[in-house]
Structure formats: C-alpha cells, structure tokens
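#struct-help
A.M.: can someone run this one for me? Single chain, 642 residues.
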Amino acid sequence: MNKIYSFLMSVGLLFFMLSAHAQSENLVKVIAQAGIVNDSTYSLKASLQLEKGWHIYGDNPDGIKAPSFSIQLESVKLQAAPTYSIQPITQPDPIFNKANVFINSFDLFQNFKINGFQPDSIKGIVLLNVAKEDQFYALELPFSVGLANGKKASGFQILLPSSSTAAPANSCGTVTTNTSDSSGWAVFLLGFLGGLIALITPCVFPMIPVTVSFFTKRSKTKKQGIVNGLLYGLSIFLIYVLASVPFHVMGNVQPEIFNSISTNPWLNIIFFIIFIFFSISFFGFFEITLPSGIANKADSKSGLGSLGGIFFMAITLAIVSFSCTGPILGTLLVGSLQGGAWALTQGMAGFGIALALPFSLFAIFPQWLQSLPKSGGWLDTVKKVLAFLELALAFKFLSNADLVQHWGLLKREVFIGIWAIISVGLALYLRGVLLLPHDVKGAKISRGRKWASDGVIIFSLILFLGIAPKNAYLLKFLSGFPPPTHYSLFADKKDQHGLQANVVNDYEQAVQLSKQQNKPILIDFTGWACVNCRKMEENVWTDPAVMSYIQTHFILVSLYVDDKAMLPVEKRFTYTNKLGQAKDINSVGDLWATFQSENFNQVTQPLYVVMGTDQKLASNPVGYTPNVEEYLAWLQCSANKK
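D.P.: on it. Structure tokens below:
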C-alpha cells in the first residue's frame, strides 16, 4: 500500500506543479488602453504591474527579448518598435549570470495602424519573460482595448428563438443518429481491435509467456497465481483508461473543443509528421523508446510483494511496449477526438481490455501457453505491414489540413494516387521484392504472404482505376478517407456536392431562398475532415430517390464546422453561449459549430436538421444514417406540412 500511496503522491505533485504554472500568470497584471493618433492609427499603452521580488527581462544578448505586443487581427500593423517608461538595469542573474531587467512596474507603448474596417475593440497579448531567483516563466498576457473610432461588428444571430427549436412539427426522427453513445461504442470496438493488433507485435507477443510464467512460478499457490494474473490484467486496463482522464478536464472548456482539436490544420500536420516518424520506425530503421530511466524506475518498483508492485509491473509493460503500441494508440487518439472525452475513454478501455485479456486468461489456464505460436520472423512482418498502414494514415492527416485550409495540395486524385503507390510498395514487400531493414535477400516467402500480396495488388489496381472521376463508384467502400468527389482536379467549385445547383453554405441565404421558393431548409452540419459526412454524400445522397427528393423538396445548406477560412473583419464578434462562456467567432467554422451546438445541443457531424419556411423545427434532427430507405423516410416525413 505504501507504493500505491507514493504513486498517488506523485500524481498529486504533478497536478500541483501544473497549478503553480497556471498561477504564474498572476505575477504580472496588464492594464491596457488605446488612444487616437489619427483616423486609422492608435496609440497603445499597457501598464505592467509586477509582483514584489520578481523581475521582467529586457533585451539580452542570449536571445531573451523585452516585453512586446502581439495584436490578434491581420489588418493591424504595429508601428516602429515598442518603448518603455523606464529603462532596464543590468544586474547579476542566477539564470543568465548577468541580465538587463525591469525590477519595478512600468508602461509599454507602441502605435498601431488598422487597414480597412475598424472594429470597436481589439484583442492582443503582451509577450514577456519573468523570473525570481531560479524560477523562470515565459508569459503571454491577454488584453482587450476599446477603439473610439471603431464600429460594432455585424455579427450573425447565432441563437434562434426558443420557439424555433422547441417541439418539432413532425415526430419523425426515429432514424439511428450519431449519438455520443453509438460513436463511443464504435470507438470501443476500434480500440479493442487496436489492442488485438498490438498483441501480435514484436514488443508485446513475446511478453505473454514470459509474464505468465513469472506469475505461475513465483506465486506460492495456483490460486495466488490466478489472482495476481487477474490483478495484472486489471492494472493494464486501468493504465490505459486513466490516460484519457486529462481529456475530460479539457472537454469542459467548450462543447466543440474536440472537433476543433481534430480539425486544427497545424495539429493535423504535426500528426502527419508523427505518423511518418512512426512508420519509419516500424519499417525497422530505428526504435521508438521512452527514456530508459522511466522504465528502470517503474521496473524497480515492480514485484509480487503488493498490489502496488503488480501495478508497476503493468506500467513497465506499457513503457517497454511503447515502440509498438504508441503508433496504434496515436491512431486511436486522433480518430476518436470528434467523439469527445467519453468516446476516447471507451476506446482506451477497449484497447486496455484487449491487451490485458491474454495475460489474465493464460494466468488462469497456463496450459494454453502450449498452443501459442512461437515468436519469429512473422512478428517482424506484422510490424512492417503496420508501417505501410501508418504511412497511408499519415497522408489522411495531411489531407485533413489541406481540406480545412483549402490549400489544394492533396486533391482527390493526388491522394488516391499516393495510396495506390503505398499499396504497390506493400505488395512488393510481401512478395519479397522490396527489402527493408532486417530482411534477408532470397528468404522463403510463405504462402500466406503471397496471398496477401495478391490481395493488395488487386486493391492497388482498384485505387488506380478509381482515380478517374467516372470510376469514383469503385471507391465507395473507402468513402470518407479520400477527399470528397467535389474536391477534385477536375471540379470547378470546391463547395459543391454535385447534388444540386443551388447548394448554399450560408444559413441566412438559405432562409431567403426558403421563403422565395416556399421550401423547407435541410441543414447539413458537415466538415471537410468528417468521414461519415463523406459516406452520406457519396453513398446515400447519390441514391436517385434521395437525390431527387432533396432537389425537389428542400433548400440544402451545408455548413462546414471545421472551415478555417476567416470571416470578414466586420463580421467577427464575441459570443457568450448558454453556459456563460465567451467565444470569439473569427472563422466560418467557429460560426457554424457554435450555431449547431447552441441551437441543437449536438457537436457531432453529420447532423441533419429540417427547418420550415417559418424557421421552426420540422422534425427531430438525425445524424449518420447509412440506410437509404430510413434516411429517405425521414426526409419525406420532415417535408410533411401539418
């Protein structure tokens, strides 16, 4: 129990350190104000009030910079360099030996000019470095100032009247929706599958007989061996579930935080780089390992002497197997972000159960160990096949960033071509033509590898054929992974589904068309990086009956919740949601994600909502509905006028 107590104390210390860092932002207070220089130029003053005993660094030769402004508006240009009400002094410094520092409170000045529309206020941050003895913090302190010559932004009316979203006119909506529960259990199954895959990697599989034998031989009785094995499996499960706890804390920030994270272009680029790194490791060029000191400390606390010792044995397994489980867990993490924290927890639980199951079962039935296949070259083959899969998945993340930013780097045909080339590489590896590290030239290729190679060749041929737009139907089984069919080298517009000519991407425009044509509005809350949205568009909406019914009876408006295109400056505003949280509405995605969550209490995509010409809910909203007949029945019921 002492070991468990020590572990809990360590966790508590970690949270204390994080809390201390958060409190560091209170070491300096900022009071900002703006004055008028001329019609488009303002003076900015920030009074920096410093806690006693601390100092702020000025400009120093070692790269430390004096306090400066950063304005979060692209039409703002800072003029000249910042100035200060006092000059820094040079004094001995425990961190940099000697440094230029401000030891008293002072004012920071700088002018800025606004090009184009002038808002009634702007937001920014003061960048500075603060220290006391051996404590050092780099701070970004936010501020907001009003502008006398500015105008209030003409923001969109996000919250609809309560009467609009109260009881729907029709009771339809029995179609299976994409609720957090259903998506969470889907992630659980994916996590369980990922855990099973992790079991047959070279880092985990050989550990099964070694660990089970350790329990059975070191335990005093058979019963104790079984109990220890079960506790070991339970510990593995708890370790992976506990890894999802921080995401529950993070999820309290904004309802759509996970969607924002999963579609962030820069984060997706980071994932692209990480997965390229993972794939190179899986190919055998190097091993990914956590620092040996971590494993040694965990291993030193392991043993059969207590429950804490068994728990640390499980931690040791998680650490030493990270080079194989890390990429799989990374895939699970980024794949479940849109489902929220509970979906991630269910996915990690599935992974933990799959990984823990054999250790517990073989501890109960040690005679089963005789039936396990021997470790060998087949484990290395599994790992390298996973490397090709990781490489293909890496380009999915790059595609997500490309789609939400509209860079046009990975149009549908380019993406499919890259996947086809990766598939050819996998087929050549399985045939023994392409040799990777640790492969032996002329080694005998098993019949299973040859069959797998034939299957991959067929898959690559389908990909090559599917590059042509006229053959897009061949890749329906991949819907959601390649970019949408309208994001093509041969498409004229990136924002059309090809479903109907008057698809719009603005709710207010849809309302006008609805009144003019006397048709209800079909709102499609979608995303550029949404897999299930593509499946609906390419497998359900293309059905002739569904397509005809939407074209005839609805005004279709597709609202992209992950579109990073910035709104015009005059349309940006700060919105306070129903929970009292303030949110800056700066991008198209910010607007429609908030519009969805505030009015329909859902943050997953796709979500389909029908509003009548009177802007009142016509039926219960539904989510991902792959069954054509059910979706069509919902459309027909929703269009019914009572």
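A.M.: thanks! Confidence is low (pLDDT under 50) at residues 1-22, 175-182, 290-304.
D.P.: also worth noting: Residues 524 and 558 are 5 Å apart (CA to CA).
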